[in-house]
Design brief:
This protein has 878 residues and is mainly alpha-helical. The chain is built from 47 helices and seven strands.
Length: 878
C-alpha cells in the first residue's frame, strides 16, 4: 500500500474541545507512567467514557506524538504496519523507510522481520516518541495482535505506546504489570467524581446543581461522561432542569436512548436529517456530506461548524477542521433510525463520491454495503492497472477477495491483473489457474498482449526454454506503447530469452528498455530488477566501467533520509559485489556482498533469493585462501537449496565445489562432478553451457590433456567473439595462455595474453590475471608496454611479490602463498596461537589449522617455527 493511498486523517490528532473538565489526576498518572519508563499505557473502558478525550487533552503541549485512529480496515497486517510506519514518519521521516519500501514489494518477508526492522529504526532515532493507537478494539486479526505483541515486547527506550480500547488486547498484560512496565486507566478511573459532575454541570449546562441533584446524576450515570454530556444537551432550553433529570432512571442504554430523543427533539429538522444521513460514514468532510444529504457543500460546512460549536458529539480529525467523525456511540445510535433502504441509498452516494475522488479503498465497502457488487468490481477494474504500476499487488488481491470469481472474469482488466498480482506475490499456482480460466472464459483474452506476456513469464519461471523468445516477441508486438507495466514484463522475458541463447547485445538492449519503463512507472522493483540483470550482462560483455557507473547511480537514488540504503538496493549490491571482485578489491566485494545479503533478508525474510551474494562470498573466501570458510558456506547453502528444492542454487554450489577441487588438484572428485554435469549440459542455455565449458578446460589442464583443452577452447573462442562477451573472453584467453604454456607454444601464449590485456586493462578486470598465479608473471613483464599501470597492479597483487623472472615460484616453493596465508604466517612468526589468530582475523580455529597445514606444505617445512624462518628467507614476511 503506497503512501498515496493512505487516509491521512487517520494520522491526525483529533482536535481537543474547549471548556473540558480538568482531570488533572489522570493526566498526572499518564505523565507518571511516561516518566517512570513504562512501555505501555492502556486506557480501557466501554464506549462513552472519554478515552480519546483524555488522550487528546494529555497530548497538548507534548512533543513527538504519533497518532493512529484505527478501524476494522487495519485488521489486515500489511495495512496496519503501513499506517504505523506512516504515523512514525510524521515525527521522523527516516523511520521505517526501509519497511515502507518492503511493503511496496510484490513479495514480502515475515511480519516479525518487518517489525524487527521498524524497531531497529526506532532505536536509532534521536527522538523520544509516543505512539497512540486509538480504538484498538476495532482490530480483530490475530496476526495484527502478534505484530503489536512483538512491538510491545521489544519496545526501544525512546518509544512509549498508548492504547485506547473498549476491551483488553491480547497482550501479556500480567507480565508487563509485574515488571512495572504498564500504566492502566480503566472505567472506574474515568468515571466522573461528584466534584467533576458539579464542574461539568456548571460548564456544560450553566447550572449550579444542588447536592441532591448531583447525587442523582452520579447514581443515574455512575460518572459515565457520555450520559452526562447527553444530559447536558437534553436540558438546553428547558425551564425545569431538575425535574427533567430526576424524571428518568435506568441502565446506560436506556439513558442514552431517552436522552438522544430529548437531544434530537431540540434540533431543527434539517439538522436531524443531516445527522442521520451522515451517521453511516466513518469520517467525512463537507463535500462528502453534501453528496449524501443533497445539501449544498457550503451549507454542510456551516452545519459542521455549528455542530462542533454545540458539542454534538463531533470529533475534528485535523487541525483545520476539514474532516470529522461522530463519537462512536452517538453514530451507532443515529444509525438505528435509518431504514435499510435509506442505508443502501446513502452507501451508494458515499461510494460514488469516494470513487470520483479516486479513493478506491474507501469506496469499495460502501459499494458492497449498497449491494452494488458489479459497480464495485467495475471501479476496481479501472484502478487495477495503476495499482500494478505502483507495485501494490497485495492491495489489488485484497480488493479482488471481495468479489465472486465470475464477476472478476466479466471485467475487462481485473482478471488478468489479478493473475499478475498473484504471480508476483509468489502464488504461481493461483496465477496459472487464473490464466487457464481466462482462456476458457466467454471474454477470451488469450490473444491479448497482457495474457501472452503472463503466459510467457510463467514459462520462464518454470524453466521452459522452447519457443520462449518467439512467445516474448509476439507478446511485445501485441502490447500498445502505453502498456508500460506489461511491456516492462515482456521485455524482461525477452531479455532473458536472448541471454539464454547467448545474444547478449539484444538481451542488454531489452533489459535497458525495461529499466527505463520501470523508472517511468516509478516502480523500484521493476526498474532495479532489470538494472541488475543488465549489469550482469555488461560484466560478461567486458563493460565493467559502465556496469559500475549504473550501480553507483542507482545506489545514490534509493536511500532514506539518513542516506542509508533501502532494502530494494540488495538487487544492486549483488552485481556491484561481482564488479569489485573482478577488480580484485576483495574487501569491498565482501562488504557489498554482505550488505546485499542483509538487505535481501529484510526484503525476503531469511530465505535466499538467487544465491548471487552467497556464491560470490564463497569465491572471495577461496580467493583469500580461506578454504574452510568457503566449504562451510557451500555446505550450508546446498542444504538450504535441497531443503527448499531450488535446483539452480544447488547447481551453483556444484560449480563452486568443482572450483575448489580443481584448485586443490583433486582430479578424481573433479571428474565425478564434471561427468555428472556433462549429462545435463545438452541445453540450449548458452550461459550455463559456457560456465561448464570453462570449468572443463581447467579440468583438462589439471589432468594434463592440453591438446584436448585447446580443441575445446577453439570452438568456444569463436562463440565468445561472435556473442560479444568480452568479459568471458578474457577468462577464456587466460586459460588458453596456460594451455599454450603446457604445449610449450610461447608465441600463441603471448598472442592470447596480449588480446586479454587489451580487453581487460581499460575496464579493470584485474582478478582474472591475479588468479593465474606466478606462472603468468614472466609473460606479463614481457608485455608491460601494453598497459604498464595495469600490469604493475597485477604483479603487485600476486602473492609474495616474488621475483618473476622465472615461471616457477621461489626456489623450493612450487605454489605461492595466498594473501590470507601470508597474514597468518606473519602472525605465526610473532608467536600468536591459533586461537589468537582466529580472533584477530574473525575466522574459526579450524580454519586457522587448515591454513597452517597448507602453509607448512607449501614452504616444505614441518613446524610453525621452520615455516616462519622459511617465509623470512623468501622475503614473504619481514
Amino acid at each position: 500500500m503506497s503512501p498515496a493511498r493512505l487516509l491521512t486523517t487517520k494520522l491526525n490528532i483529533p482536535r481537543s474541545r474547549p471548556n473540558l473538565v480538568e482531570r488533572q489526576h489522570l493526566l498526572e498518572k499518564m505523565d507518571g507512567g511516561l516518566q517512570a519508563g513504562s512501555r505501555l499505557t492502556l486506557i480501557c473502558a466501554p464506549a462513552g467514557y472519554g478515552k480519546t478525550t483524555l488522550v487528546t487533552t494529555w497530548v497538548q503541549n507534548k512533543q513527538n506524538i504519533a497518532w493512529l485512529s484505527l478501524n476494522a480496515d487495519e485488521s489486515q497486517p500489511v495495512r496496519f504496519l503501513t499506517y504505523i510506519t506512516a504515523a512514525f514518519q510524521t515525527i521522523d521521516a527516516s523511520i521505517g523507510e526501509g519497511v515502507q519500501s518492503i511493503l511496496e514489494m510484490p513479495q514480502q518477508p515475515a511480519l516479525e522481520d518487518m517489525v524487527t526492522e521498524l524497531v531497529n529504526n526506532l532505536a536509532k532515532s534521536s527522538q523520544n516518541i509516543v505512539l497512540i493507537l486509538d480504538d484498538y478494539h476495532a482490530i480483530k486479526s490475530a496476526r495484527v495482535h502478534d505484530v503489536l505483541d512483538f512491538l510491545v515486547e521489544h519496545t526501544p527506550q525512546n518509544l512509549h505506546l498508548i492504547i485506547t480500547t473498549r476491551e483488553d488486547p491480547p497482550l501479556p498484560l500480567a507480565r508487563l504489570r509485574a515488571r512495572g512496565q504498564l500504566t492502566e486507566i480503566r472505567a472506574h478511573d474515568l468515571r466522573f467524581s461528584r466534584q467533576e459532575i458539579s464542574t461539568f454541570c456548571l460548564q456544560a449546562m450553566h447550572l449550579t446543581a444542588s447536592d441532591a441533584l448531583l447525587e442523582h446524576l452520579e447514581r443515574l450515570t455512575e460518572g459515565w461522561i457520555s450520559g452526562l454530556q447527553m444530559a447536558g444537551l437534553a436540558v438546553q432550553g428547558q425551564k425545569d432542569i431538575n425535574s427533567l433529570l430526576e424524571s428518568f432512571d435506568g441502565s446506560h442504554r436506556y439513558i442514552i436512548d431517552y436522552l438522544m430523543d430529548e437531544v434530537l427533539s431540540l434540533q431543527p429538522v434539517e439538522i436531524r436529517t443531516f445527522l442521520q444521513r451522515t451517521s453511516i460514514l466513518e469520517r467525512f468532510n463537507a463535500g462528502l456530506c453534501a453528496a449524501v444529504t443533497g445539501m449544498p457543500e457550503v451549507v454542510c460546512a456551516a452545519m459542521l461548524d455549528d455542530l462542533e460549536r454545540k458539542n454534538l458529539f463531533l470529533v475534528a480529525l485535523d487541525p483545520t477542521g476539514h474532516w470529522y467523525r461522530y463519537h462512536h456511540l452517538f453514530g451507532d445510535i443515529l444509525r438505528t433510525s435509518l431504514s435499510a433502504e435509506a442505508e443502501r441509498e446513502i452507501h451508494h452516494l458515499a461510494a460514488v463520491w469516494f470513487d470520483n475522488s479516486t479513493l478506491t479503498s474507501e469506496a469499495l465497502p460502501h459499494y458492497l454495503a449498497a449491494g452494488e457488487v458489479e459497480q464495485a468490481a467495475s471501479m476496481v477494474d479501472k484502478a487495477a492497472l495503476q495499482v500494478l504500476y505502483q507495485g501494490e499487488m497485495r492491495t489489488l488481491l485484497e480488493w479482488c477477495a471481495s468479489f465472486p470469481e465470475q464477476i472478476i472474469l466479466r471485467q475487462k482488466n481485473l482478471a488478468i491483473c489479478m493473475a499478475a498480482a498473484n504471480l508476483f506475490s509468489g502464488e504461481a499456482g493461483k496465477a496459472a489457474a487464473a490464466l487457464s480460466q481466462l482462456k476458457t472464459a466467454k471474454q477470451d483474452v488469450s490473444s491479448s498482449g497482457r495474457y501472452l506476456t503472463l503466459a510467457a513469464l510463467m514459462k520462464l519461471y518454470s524453466g521452459q526454454t522452447a519457443s520462449l523468445l518467439e512467445e516474448a516477441q509476439i507478446a511485445l508486438k501485441a502490447l500498445p506503447a502505453d502498456e508500460v507495466f506489461f511491456r516492462a514484463i515482456a521485455l524482461q522475458v525477452l531479455a532473458t530469452a536472448y541471454q539464454w541463447e547467448g545474444n547478449y547485445t539484444r538481451s542488454s538492449s531489452a533489459y535497458e528498455q525495461a529499466y527505463h519503463l520501470g523508472r517511468e512507472m516509478k516502480n523500484a522493483f521493476a526498474s532495479l530488477t532489470a538494472l541488475a540483470n543488465l549489469v550482469y550482462n555488461l560484466i560478461d560483455m567486458g563493460q565493467l566501467v559502465y556496469a559500475e557507473k549504473l550501480c553507483l547511480h542507482a545506489i545514490s537514488q534509493y536511500v532514506d533520509h539518513r542516506n542509508r540504503p533501502l532494502p530494494i538496493l540488495s538487487l544492486v549490491y549483488n552485481p556491484l559485489c561481482t564488479i569489485r571482485f573482478e577488480q580484485n578489491q576483495l574487501d569491498e566485494a565482501e562488504e557489498y556482498g554482505r550488505l546485499a545479503l542483509s538487505l535481501s533478508h529484510k526484503m525476503y525474510s531469511s530465505k535466499m533469493t538467487g544465491g548471487d551474494a552467497e556464491t560470490k562470498l564463497v569465491e572471495i573466501a577461496f580467493a583469500r585462501g580461506d578454504i574452510a570458510a568457503g566449504l562451510e558456506m557451500i555446505s550450508s547453502i546446498r542444504q538450504f537449496a535441497h531443503r527448499e528444492k531450488i535446483t539452480f542454487i544447488a547447481n551453483k554450489m556444484d560449480f563452486l565445489e568443482l572450483s575448489f577441487l580443481l584448485r586443490q588438484g583433486d582430479a578424481a572428485n573433479a571428474k565425478r562432478i564434471i561427468e555428472s554435469m556433462q549429462s545435463e549440459m545438452h541445453t540450449p542455455l548458452a550461459a550455463a553451457r559456457h560456465i561448464f565449458l570453462l570449468y572443463k578446460l581447467r579440468y583438462l589442464l589439471l589432468i594434463k590433456h592440453p591438446q584436448e583443452a585447446l580443441a575445446e577452447s577453439d570452438d568456444l573462442l569463436n562463440e565468445f567473439r561472435l556473442s560479444n562477451v568480452n568479459g568471458k573472453l578474457i577468462v577464456l584467453l587466460l586459460l588458453r595462455v596456460k594451455i599454450h604454456q603446457a604445449l610449450k607454444d610461447d608465441v600463441l601464449a603471448q598472442s592470447d595474453l596480449k588480446e586479454a590485456l587489451m580487453l581487460a586493462a581499460p575496464q579493470g578486470y584485474l582478478w582474472q590475471f591475479v588468479r593465474m598465479g606466478a606462472t603468468i608473471a614472466p609473460l606479463l613483464k614481457q608485455n608491460r608496454q601494453i598497459a604498464p599501470e595495469f600490469i604493475d597492479s597485477i604483479l603487485e597483487k600476486l602473492p609474495g611479490k616474488q621475483d618473476f623472472g622465472t615461471t616457477a615460484g621461489p626456489t623450493g616453493m612450487p605454489e605461492p602463498l595466498s594473501e590470507q596465508e601470508i597474514r597468518i604466517t606473519r602472525m605465526m612468526s610473532a608467536g600468536m596461537s591459533n586461537q589468537q589468530i582466529a580472533s584477530e582475523l574473525f575466522i574459526s580455529v579450524g580454519t586457522v589449522k587448515w591454513h597452517v597445514h597448507n602453509i607448512l606444505g607449501k614452504l616444505n617445512t614441518t613446524s610453525r617455527t621452520q615455516a616462519a624462518a622459511r617465509a623470512r628467507e623468501l622475503e614473504l614476511i619481514v
